[in-house]
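Sequence in, structure out. Go.
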Amino acid sequence: MIEIKPDCSLTWNEAKIIVGVVCSVILLISVYFASKGAWLVLPFSGAEIIMVISGFYLGFKNLQHRELIQIEENEIRIFQGLDKLMQVASFNPFWAKIKHSRDSNGWYQDRLYLHSHGKYVEVARGLTNEEKRKLSEKLQNILKYK
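Output:
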């Protein structure tokens, strides 16, 4: 069983502190300008605060994405999801192949697919290119002996 999840060095509590500090600075600056007569900055600073909070929230929600590759004797099952993992695909290990698609220009992230009989499932979206390469080698070694 292989569990795949993105790395995150910032905890949720640390992120809340950072968001609180940033929003406090935005609010202090907007209150200062409003006290000087430029009250029109208040709605825009409120919109900016909402954008900062929603950006952090959506970023952390994407970091909760997990994948599980369960390799058994007669079946490979792939589960993906945020809170609840749902089965996305199932492959026969004797026919399954790994495809590591690299960008020729180096501009985009590599993609790692598990496929069989025309059915492709992308795995390891949250990993770096180096981590995808290592996972690809590990999966190929596992499938080689099936």
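Check: Strands lie at 2-4, 66-71, 76-81, 86-91, 97-101, 111-116, 119-123. The mean pLDDT is 88.
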